Amino acid sequence: MQDIKERVLKFNEERDWHKFHSPENLAKSISIEAGELLECFQWNNNYNKEEVIEELADVVNYCILMSNALGVELEDIVLEKLKKTEKKYPIEKAKGVSTKYNKFDK
Amino acid sequence: MQDIKERVLKFNEERDWHKFHSPENLAKSISIEAGELLECFQWNNNYNKEEVIEELADVVNYCILMSNALGVELEDIVLEKLKKTEKKYPIEKAKGVSTKYNKFDK
Amino acid sequence: MQDIKERVLKFNEERDWHKFHSPENLAKSISIEAGELLECFQWNNNYNKEEVIEELADVVNYCILMSNALGVELEDIVLEKLKKTEKKYPIEKAKGVSTKYNKFDK
Amino acid sequence: MQDIKERVLKFNEERDWHKFHSPENLAKSISIEAGELLECFQWNNNYNKEEVIEELADVVNYCILMSNALGVELEDIVLEKLKKTEKKYPIEKAKGVSTKYNKFDK
Fold it and tell me: What is the ipTM of this complex?
């Protein structure tokens, strides 16, 4: 991911766009692009794979910029969150079900 | 990213969750998590960095699962999209402005 | 709202579009249109009022269709929810602050 | 809708919350609530109707506040937009299909 992050940052530096990239603006941008990704599936499941891939790339592009704005690495924060989620969703309770952790039997 | 992708996939295999991870369900999930990320900035800009990082990790987690469902690598698709975007936003037109490409002067 | 609901329903009946309007598809549609509304504010606050109004109308259009799919009236459900919110946000605790109810002092 | 709009405005005036309700913050809020609505359908179609209704009410609540911030009436703007959409989607082309207008045969 490091390589691609550098490419994305360089692209934006060349265009002097970092001034637009406050965490708040990037959070909006991720939501906007997520909506465009969802649009590929709006009425049915016959999605156009090329369109889906492009919209997914747009979401990830802004996630990379957000990680830069926050001074963190995406790999690190996904790993950290995974460790927390492992505790909230122990295999024996979570296996095969989509139940939210706060609705597990105690 | 390869390492973290394997960790994420293993986590979901252990819980037999891949059956939920159709591209459509993942697109919904990315939008839902993007909304939670945006909530950190709902009324003002005094965000809690730890919360923002966790919500961003959730978005990226589902992007990783989506890349797996589509059989692509996130690094590759972001790079491909960047090449397209470079053509749509040449430096001399895009520099310092947030104008959308379809509103550039011809 | 009754008048406009009938107009919206008639428009969709004429086009035989109700078959697409499952609650799930409408939930996706509301998110998609909400993303387009948000795009009017992506990089700054200099929004185009006409564009904002059109995107807001799209969101509400799908909310009307959702109310129809669920067999409820928007006025009724907003009123019901308001009563609940009044209890969660008593004036003396909520006045002038954007604090979420679960973070109020006990 | 007029009655319920007045109720919603009064609720927010009593709490001195209008100061938070810039069009931009309301656009974020509509997206956030749309995400919560979508969450009711995240993994399958077995939705809890009561939850769906509450989340839909939250979306409409913020749409009402947005209409107030913009100085327009929701009924008026939905009707205006419907007239435009009727032109973009003539019955003979749109009947029974979910095709986007820009993909119609010329």
Answer: 0.96
